[in-house]
Design brief:
The protein folds into two domains: 74 residues, no CATH class; 110 residues, no CATH class. Helices cover 35% and strands 24% of the residues. Bound molecules: zinc ion. The site of zinc ion has 6 residues, from loops.
């Protein structure tokens, strides 16, 4: 048995990881803790061997989450259920495929406040609740990769490049999205 240290708890809290999402991997090899963590929905292993920087929190693939904090956010996000949405900007002539854990309308509201991608007229065309929505969002982005429209824009005074916009017909976006959904999820699509 291993225990989480106070420093671990501070780190987890800072990154929004609940103690319920951690897994005591003492005595287990990576090939052993990975499937168990996946089955139990755990994201962070402790009681693991230290990384070369002396940390002992790893994701289920064995990557040190203190050296590579992005790895944990990525893993959690891809497994979250949530809303996938398709939005379009008539001004840009582009569509946007995105994921929101709880409120796609709020996401688009903020996109229009910020001028996401250089547009202030984003409108949601459809939403659907899906399991593993983060992973499905990534799969849709990959299947639309030929249409990816990168646009530099300014958020809060800082230049960023959007990678969620695509220069294709709405119907092509819908097809790409539907091909990632289960039959039950397809029934849940809400068109606007
Ligand atoms: Zn480390």
């Amino acid at each position: 048995m291993a225990r989480l240290t106070k420093a671990h708890l501070r780190y987890l809290e800072h990154h929004g990881i609940d103690v319920d999402e951690t897994f005591d991997a003492s005595g287990l090899k990576r090939a052993e803790y990975r499937p168990r963590m996946k089955a139990e929905g755990k994201f962070v292993a402790y009681g693991v061997t230290k990384c070369h920087n002396g940390h002992s929190l790893r994701n289920r693939y064995g990557t040190c989450i203190e050296c590579f904090p992005a790895s944990i956010a990525f893993a959690r996000r891809s497994e979250m259920s949530g809303y996938l949405y398709l939005a379009k900007s008539a001004d840009l002539g582009l569509i946007k495929v995105g994921f929101s854990g709880d409120d796609p309308d709020n996401r688009i509201y903020i996109a229009n406040l910020e001028g996401y991608g250089g547009a202030w007229d984003w409108q949601i065309c459809l939403t659907v609740w899906a399991d593993h929505a983060g992973a499905k969002e990534i799969a849709v982005h990959q299947s639309l990769a030929d249409f990816r429209a990168e646009r530099a824009w300014i958020r809060n005074g800082a230049g960023i490049v959007s990678r969620e916009m695509f220069d294709c017909e709405l119907a092509a976006g819908i097809d790409a999205l539907m091909s990632q959904l289960t039959a039950r999820e397809v029934q849940l699509i809400e068109y606007r």
